[in-house]
Amino acid sequence: MGVQACEKQKHENLEALLREYCETRDINLRNKLLKEYLYIAEIIAKKFVNRGVEYDDLFQIASLALLKALERYDINKGFKFSSFATPTIIGEIKNYFRDKSRIIRLPRKESEMIKKLEKARQQLTNKFGRSPKPEEIAEYLNISTEEVLELMESRYITSTISLDYYIDDGETDLSMLIGEEEKDYTRIENKDLIEKAMEKLNDLERKVIYERFFNERSQRDIAEEIGVSQMYISRLERRVLQRLKRIFSDK
């Protein structure tokens, strides 16, 4: 039997199990289905990493949401289970982030310094006709360049970024979100090495690499967003890629 035939048979078996579960609500069937579809929770949870919450916590939230979706699912309504479960899981994770954001606050002194940093950046941009370099901002504020970079990183971490930028609420079909199920499941397994390597980077480094190679943005765009020079982004990118290369060479 070919690969496509095997996948088709697997899909039909899952559909049969789902139909039986919807009719019987048997706990053993539910647990079996939960195990089969757990990869959906894994994929979605990984899309929300590096935003201040550990993957294990996100996976737990996603898994509980998957269970909730399974208990509410009605196959007779004609929806694919993946299409039904995906927005439920995304919604639960978004709610968690919103609840968490309400209690995250920067120290007052640091918050005031970030405001001064932003004001200085705007004034120097008007003066130079370009985004100022970190050392220029440091001289303007009479602080060290390292302090400027730390403040920039804090500003990035605490900036309110819509989660919809990463995953759109209108995507109710899992195939639109992550592509074909079996292909993406294998792809995510193969990405573990990259993700573990990315964990060794700080937030600013991950930001640059993610924007450059996942969102395919230019160094200039990223530099303007963060408030540094394009040369700084270029040096940072080169340094990080060299470090990642060493990590992969050691594997």
Question: Overview of this structure, please?
Answer:
With 251 residues, this protein is mainly alpha-helical. It folds into three domains: 1-104, Four Helix Bundle (Hemerythrin (Met), subunit A) (Up-down Bundle); 108-156, Orthogonal Bundle (Arc Repressor Mutant, subunit A); 191-251, Arc Repressor Mutant, subunit A (Orthogonal Bundle). 74% of the residues lie in helices and 0% in strands. The protein contains 13 helices and no strands. The longest helix is centred in the N-terminal third of the chain and has 22 residues, at 3-24. The protein starts with a helix and ends with a helix. The model is unreliable at 160-190 (pLDDT under 50).
Secondary structure topology:
Blueprint: H1 3-24, H2 27-46, H3 55-72, H4 81-101, H5 108-128, H6 134-141, H7 145-158, H8 174-178, H9 181-190, H10 192-198, H11 203-213, H12 219-226, H13 230-250
Helix pairs in contact: 1-2, 2-3, 2-4, 3-4, 5-6, 5-7, 6-7, 12-13
